Amino acid sequence: LLGATIRAYRHQRRLTQEVLAAQTGLSLTYISQVERGRRNVSVLALLGIAAVLQVPVGMLLQPLEARPELFLPQQAEAPPSTL
Fold this sequence. Notes:
By secondary structure, this protein is mainly α. The chain contains 5 helices and no strands. The longest helix has 11 residues, at 2-12.
């Protein structure tokens, strides 16, 4: 969801991945992988992306708040007691 949100804001701002990469100091490969959900984004990179896109970081993270099951570890059920 984070990558898709970044892509949506980038398109809204009419920026290419190349321009976003250049303005953030990140590589084009990194931006592409983040947008496709193939790479985790660091906090510093996220701050830079938000600054270039001119949105608060919270706006980029907002869709994740609605789907916490996608990023929170699942709690394993305890095995039944054999007592």
